């Protein structure tokens, strides 16, 4: 098999596009996209996907993106950044979940958790899929070595986060989802980190299996390749509680800042509402897989 055919992003996009929707119009009404995520109501289930290093070459853009998600009434997740950059993001006023890398140096992890607590974060979490590189060694992000984490370590992060909900990002199996539940995490993101792992199963393929295994014990977010309201609808139908958009939003950030980001999130949300209406669902909580047809 060629390397191109193993591209996880291409596999994921093809799988999303293979899912079609059954229309149900009689007795339908105009729906609402308002969604409760980790106990708080947002205007949309569309949220940020935890960017890292966005300020490199684009000073000020992390805060602009955060402002855009806040303006759209959406949840903002953010990844690896300096303390100064994170202060700017928190100052933007959006509800923000800080996602931490799986540093081998545990002190860096606890520093970031304490930083999030002291700056009014909405939540905190970790993208566990940055543990391994492509060279047969643990991953390196800049000067920092990463490593895989144990359930016991995750439990310690959850405890350190206190009342903040802890999110584990990069879950792509039922086994890992169940371990996140055991560790006390409040949510997981089903994703493969934009193709960090070649040949990875598409998130929407494994999502229903994860939902069936963990039920309502933990909230489930979906990430990787979502670009439209239709894409978001498919993820919600297969078991996600909310959906992240990532690189799709970058061009809007660079071109028009917060306004462009808010406009794009609003556009995706409007598209979602249109699909919901055509399928007879009044709220995002009602959406289910009965309307999904695999080609």
SSE order and pairing:
Elements: H1 8-18, E1 19-21, E2 35-37, E3 40-42, E4 46-48, H2 61-71, E5 76-78, H3 83-91, E6 96-100, H4 106-118, E7 123-127, E8 140-141, E9 144-145, H5 151-161, E10 166-171, H6 174-183, E11 187-190, H7 203-214, E12 219-222, H8 229-237, E13 242-245, H9 250-279, E14 292-294
Parallel strand pairs: 4-13, 5-6, 6-7, 7-10, 10-11, 11-12, 12-13
Antiparallel strand pairs: 1-14, 2-3, 8-9
Helix pairs in contact: 2-3, 2-9, 5-6, 6-7, 8-9
Structure characterization notes:
The chain has 295 residues and is an alpha/beta fold. It has one domain: TIM Barrel. Helices cover 39% and strands 17% of the residues. An eight-stranded parallel sheet has the order 4-13-12-11-10-7-6-5. The longest helix has 30 residues, at 250-279.
Features:
two-stranded antiparallel sheet; 8-stranded parallel beta sheet; 17% strand; 14 strands; 9 helices; globular; 295 residues; alpha/beta; TIM Barrel
Task: Briefly summarize what is shown.
It is built from nine helices and 14 strands. The chain is α/β, with parallel strands linked by helices and 295 residues long. It is globular.
């Amino acid at each position: 098999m060629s390397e191109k055919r193993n591209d996880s992003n291409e596999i994921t996009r093809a799988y999303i596009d293979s899912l079609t929707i059954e229309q149900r119009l009689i007795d339908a009404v105009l729906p609402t996209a308002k969604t409760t995520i980790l106990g708080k109501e947002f205007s949309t289930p569309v949220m940020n996907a935890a960017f890292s290093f966005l300020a490199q070459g684009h000073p000020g853009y992390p805060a602009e993106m955060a402002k855009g998600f806040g303006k759209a009434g959406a949840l903002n997740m953010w990844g690896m950044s300096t303390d100064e950059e994170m202060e700017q993001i928190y100052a933007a006023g959006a509800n923000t979940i800080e996602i931490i890398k799986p540093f081998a140096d545990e002190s860096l992890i606890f520093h970031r958790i304490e930083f999030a607590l002291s700056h009014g974060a909405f939540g905190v979490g970790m993208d566990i899929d940055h543990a391994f590189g492509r060279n047969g060694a643990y991953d390196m992000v800049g000067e920092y070595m990463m490593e895989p984490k144990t359930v016991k370590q995750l439990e310690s992060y959850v405890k350190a986060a206190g009342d903040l909900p802890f999110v584990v990002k990069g879950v792509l199996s039922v086994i890992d989802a169940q371990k996140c539940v055991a560790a006390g995490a409040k949510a997981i993101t089903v994703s493969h980190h934009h193709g960090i792992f070649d040949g990875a199963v598409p998130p929407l393929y494994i999502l229903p299996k994860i939902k069936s295994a963990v039920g309502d014990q933990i909230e489930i977010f979906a990430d990787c390749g979502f670009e439209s309201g239709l894409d978001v609808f498919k993820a919600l139908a297969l078991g996600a509680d909310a959906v992240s958009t990532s690189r799709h939003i970058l061009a809007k950030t660079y071109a028009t800042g917060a306004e462009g980001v808010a406009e794009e999130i609003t556009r995706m949300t409007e598209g979602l509402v249109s699909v919901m209406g055509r399928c007879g669902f009044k709220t995002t909580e009602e959406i289910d897989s009965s309307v999904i047809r695999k080609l």
